[in-house]
Inverse folding.
C-alpha cells in the first residue's frame, strides 16, 4: 500500500476515534440539557434520549426561585475568585522560591511533598479548623486551599525549564529575587498559572463538603451546597411544587418531578465552569506538559 494511502487511513481512524471519544464526553451534558427543557412527564419516564420533546423553560424558572439562591451564588463566585487568585499567587511565588538557594530548601521542599501522601483524616481536620476559628467563617473556604503542593511542584518544574541566563542577567543588574519574579518569571510562567487557575477554580466552584462540615450560617451557604440539598430532597420538593401549583389542574408536561429538578440543578452547577473553561483551554495543554516534565 502506498505511503500516502496509509497516512490517509491513519488520519481517518484517528479522527473517527477522537470523534467517538468526544461524543462520549459531550453526550451526558447534552442528555441533561434536553431533559431540562423537555416534557417533564416524558422525561421522568425515560422517554427523552436523543432530542428534546415539547420544549419549555419552566424548570429553570422554578430552580431560580429557590430561596437564598442569589446570596449563595455570590458566596460561590467570591470564594472561587478569591481562592483561585490567592492559590495561583502562592503557587507561583513558592514554586519560584524552591528553585533558589534558600535556607533549608531541601527540608522544606520534602516537607511540602510529604503532605501529598499523608492525611490526618476528617476529625483532626475539623478540630484544627474549629480551633482556628474557621467555622461559620468565609475564610474557611479560602485559607486551607492557598498552599497546594501539586501546584507548587508544577510551577517549580516550569521555572526550572526556563533559561537560567534570564535570571542571571537581572541579578548582574542588581535585581533581587522579588524583582526578578515580578518582572521576568511571572510573565513567562503564564501557561502553567492558567492551568493552575483552571484546577483551582473548578475545585472551589464544585466544593460543598466544607460547607457541610463547617458552616451553619445560611448567609455563608454556597450555591453547590444549596443545590446539593435540593437534589437530595428532589422528591419532597417536587411534591411541594405540585401542591402549591394545584397538581390536578397543572399540565403534566410542566409539572415538577424529581427527575426534572435533579437534571436542572445539575445543569445550573456545571454551566458556569463550562463557559469559563474555553478561555483558558489554549494555555492548558502547554502548561500541564511543560510543568509536569523537567527539561
Amino acid at each position: 500500500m502506498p505511503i500516502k494511502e496509509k497516512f490517509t487511513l491513519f488520519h481517518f481512524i484517528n479522527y473517527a476515534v477522537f470523534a467517538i471519544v468526544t461524543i462520549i464526553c459531550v453526550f451526558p451534558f447534552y442528555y441533561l440539557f434536553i431533559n431540562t427543557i423537555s416534557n417533564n412527564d416524558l422525561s421522568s419516564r425515560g422517554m427523552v434520549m436523543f432530542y428534546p420533546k415539547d420544549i419549555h423553560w419552566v424548570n429553570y424558572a422554578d430552580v431560580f426561585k429557590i430561596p437564598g439562591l442569589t446570596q449563595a451564588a455570590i458566596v460561590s463566585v467570591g470564594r472561587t475568585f478569591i481562592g483561585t487568585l490567592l492559590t495561583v499567587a502562592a503557587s507561583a511565588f513558592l514554586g519560584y522560591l524552591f528553585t533558589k538557594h534558600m535556607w533549608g530548601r531541601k527540608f522544606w521542599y520534602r516537607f511540602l511533598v510529604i503532605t501529598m501522601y499523608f492525611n490526618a483524616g476528617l476529625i483532626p481536620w475539623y478540630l484544627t479548623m474549629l480551633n482556628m476559628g474557621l467555622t461559620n467563617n468565609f475564610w474557611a473556604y479560602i485559607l486551607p486551599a492557598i498552599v497546594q503542593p501539586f501546584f507548587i511542584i508544577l510551577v517549580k518544574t516550569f521555572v526550572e525549564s526556563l533559561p537560567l541566563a534570564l535570571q542571571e542577567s537581572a541579578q548582574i543588574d542588581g535585581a533581587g529575587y522579588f524583582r526578578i519574579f515580578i518582572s521576568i518569571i511571572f510573565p513567562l510562567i503564564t501557561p502553567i498559572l492558567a492551568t493552575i487557575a483552571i484546577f483551582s477554580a473548578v475545585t472551589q466552584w464544585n466544593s460543598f463538603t466544607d460547607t457541610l462540615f463547617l458552616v451553619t450560617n445560611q448567609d455563608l451557604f454556597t450555591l453547590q451546597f444549596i443545590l446539593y440539598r435540593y437534589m437530595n430532597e428532589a422528591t419532597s420538593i417536587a411534591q411541594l411544587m405540585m401542591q402549591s401549583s394545584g397538581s390536578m389542574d397543572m399540565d403534566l408536561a410542566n409539572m415538577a418531578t424529581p427527575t426534572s429538578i435533579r437534571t436542572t440543578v445539575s445543569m445550573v452547577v456545571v454551566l458556569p465552569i463550562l463557559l469559563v473553561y474555553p478561555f483558558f483551554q489554549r494555555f492548558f495543554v502547554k502548561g500541564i506538559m511543560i510543568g509536569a516534565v523537567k527539561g
User: Anything to note?
Assistant: Residues 58-292 form a domain with the MetI-like fold fold (CATH 1.10.3720.10). Confidence is low (pLDDT under 50) at residues 291-295. The two ends are 39 Å apart (CA to CA).
